Amino acid sequence: MRVLVVNAGSRTLKLSVVEHDLVVSSLTLDPWLGDATAIRTFAAATGPADAVGHRVVHGGTEFTDAVVLDDTVISQLRALTNLAPLHQPRALAAIDAARHAVPAVDHVACFDTAFHATMPAAASTYALPAEWRKRWPLRRFGFHGLSHAYVARRSAELAGRPPGSLRTVSCHLGAGASLCAIAGGRSVDTTMGFTPLEGLVMATRAGNIDPGLVLWLQEHAGLDIEDVRDGLEQRSGLMGLCGTDDMRTVLERRAGGDAEAVLAFDVYTLALRRSLGAMVASLFSVDIFAFTGGVGEHAAEVRAAAGMPLDEEANRSTTSDGEITAPGADVRTFVITAHEDAEIAHQVRALLDRR
């Protein structure tokens, strides 16, 4: 099956054609203004597709697997906008544009939250008042599920073992970052929660903080909701610690002895080690660590600081699919090129083959 993949981010649009898990053509528009012209032009230039797969960040509690899009499903996705206000409207705009540009085939939504629907209640439930949890969908949804699902499959291939036999910690480290504990190919725990703000220190997001700190800022420092939201989402993380959201710049400045960059790196990697320990605890033991995403694939210094035994030369030289395990280590460690597009195509084929 030849699948056209449409991945709308908060600013960009990534288009690709995937056959047999291989990307045969791709295009990134930055920025994308929401029109259908680019999708129609790309589809015409790359040839007929058998189906179109769409990345949708949030499926809420309603969508725990890929689903064929129709007007009813799209209406349900629109109702989830308040759970992902930056991404959901962009995904819906891309869906509308693509359905007009490529009208004769099935369009399928694949969700970043869906992979985490298998988490046990102990991992997905917040210890909040019962009446709150009954009234609103206050649970840990998790994100980056398409990336983590691909890592589970690809790391098993590289290890030469079936996914069902492995306990894997997937480390998606990019501008947004999360870890996922995977047992038998299924998510059992993850670091992001109700929103993508929870968990690791990220490029511009704070990650885990004391909720009381937010209450104090509003009650005693006079910050309103918009001030707090902007601070936590856009001006925290690496940006807040050293004035840049780019890990490459952090590493360059750290190498030169810049004190702010040294602190940013140390805060980032300590948060990473803490969360890695939590994911291992959720699995009880682990067979594979896998790094993916822009930082996970290219920042050898971050991988070295994560705490697992690595082969120094392999770690320094590996930026795509490959093993970086130290000789004699009990747990294997891989670097895996992120391929959300391949995972989306995989889910589209699986869904349509069942029909």
Describe the 3D structure.
This protein has about 350 residues and is α/β, with parallel strands linked by helices. The strands form 2 sheets. The chain has a 6-stranded mixed β-sheet, with helices on both faces. The protein has 15 helices and 12 strands. Strand 2 and strand 3 form a beta hairpin.
Question: Topology, please?
Answer:
Elements (H helix, E strand, L loop, with lengths): L1 E7 L4 E7 L2 E8 L7 H10 L4 E6 L10 E2 L2 H9 L8 H14 L4 E6 L9 H4 L5 H6 L9 H15 L7 E7 L3 E7 L2 E5 L20 H9 L5 H10 L2 H6 L4 H9 L3 H25 L4 E5 H6 L1 H6 L6 H6 L4 E2 L8 E4 L4 H14 L2
Parallel strand pairs: 1-4, 4-6, 7-10, 10-12
Antiparallel strand pairs: 1-2, 2-3, 5-6, 7-8, 8-9, 11-12
Helix pairs in contact: 1-3, 6-15, 10-11
Q: What structural category do the secondary elements indicate?
A: alpha/beta
What would you report as the Rg, rounded to the nearest angstrom? 20 Å
Q: What proportion of the residues form beta strands (DSSP E)?
A: 15-25%
Give the averaged pLDDT, no decimals: 96
Q: Kindly report how far apart the N and C termini lie.
A: 14 Å
Give helix % range: 40-55%
- Number of DSSP helices? 15
**Total number of strands:** 12
Low-confidence blocks of residues: none
Largest sheet: 6 strands, mixed
Numbering strands along the chain, what is their spatial order in the largest sheet? 3-2-1-4-6-5
Pattern of helices and strands? EEEHEEHHEHHHEEEHHHHHEHHHEEH
